[in-house]
Design brief:
The protein is built from 18 helices and 15 strands. By secondary structure, it is α/β, with parallel strands linked by helices. Helix 16 links the parallel strand 14 and strand 15. Helix 2 packs across helix 3.
Amino acid sequence: MPLLMSRRHNLLADEPGLGKTFQAIELFNRLKLMNMLLICKASIKTNWYRRLEENLDWPFIDIQIVNKKTEDIHGDVVIVNYDLIIHSHIFWQLKKRNWGLLVCDEAHYLKNQEAKRTKAILAKNGIIHSCLRSLMMTGTPVLSRPSELYPMLKVLAPQVIAPYNDYWSYAKRYCDAWMDGFGFNDKGASHTDELNKKLREHYMIRRTWNDVETQLPKRRYEMVFVDQTAGVAPSLRQLENFERRHFHHQKLDPGEHLASLRRKTAEIKVEACLDQIKEYIESSGKIVIFAYHHCVIERLSHELKGFGVVVLTGSTGNSLRQRAIDDFIKTPEIRVFIGQIQAAGEGIDGLQGVCHNILFVETSWVPAEISQAIARLWRLGQTKRVLIRFLVWANSVEEHMLRVALDKVQTIREIVK
């Protein structure tokens, strides 16, 4: 906390589950500022509101959640989502006020310097210039490549990247950039140790699970490989041959082919594993299940309804989202929380108090999303060993792509370790 208070701009990059939300609120409390602007995903605005209500030192502060692009801004603490700040009525109200502290949760949303939300916050006429201090928060500051850090560093911490302040020189130094046959390729990584050192010296504060692991119970991982058994499902070769014929006839691109193959593989795997999933629930008490496709989530919800189920996906409204979380925590008869990985992997707290079992029926191909999902349970406040199971179709596209995704972890760790 002293380091956060000593610098005007900070990147709080603790790994998911280590209390970034509470650190942000405590920073506001200790600085005794008059107001705060909090920008986050729409789906976690209610979660932020509740945490602020519970932890602000001054209960008389007016906390406002902005939900409409035509809304008038009046709160001392204003919570608004990224999608709303690009609308002129909201933007100019935020721009005209002087803010003591700007907090951007999930700040990796600002990775694209051409995106409207990035410009609304970080451009020369952006909201940041109306803010005395800023706190950028993300457990995944580099989702896949160093180029994603540049928009923040250029504006908030130019000392980190000096003398490579323009993007061309930054990309050559830290992104292994070069001109390939298609143009400027900045998708690589280079001098990652140097970038990490400068980030920690001037801008980034990061604790990893290794730093606090002695305060937490252990995790245990199980890879549960599902055999392609005759009579249960067609073999992967049959499925791939079907897809190849179908997509050749339709003349669709390989990306669509892979997406369809991934979905069909998941549907077949769920069919093959339903009895096994039910056995896990019966032996686990409460359990959190993650999946990727809506069709898989709908099937699981229908088949498992006898255990008491709540569902949270990207289409779940804010009020229903919080109700699903509360019902799972408070209702003994509700034993299953089914979450879509992207939607339920962030902005959810409290599950660790009632549950210590995770089952990935499907996994993301983005390692950071898997880590964030696990951190819903393996986080401060958990008192039991967390058991994490992955259902993986053996020798499948799913297994191959999961291994490819995990190979990307090393570059990320080198930069933000």
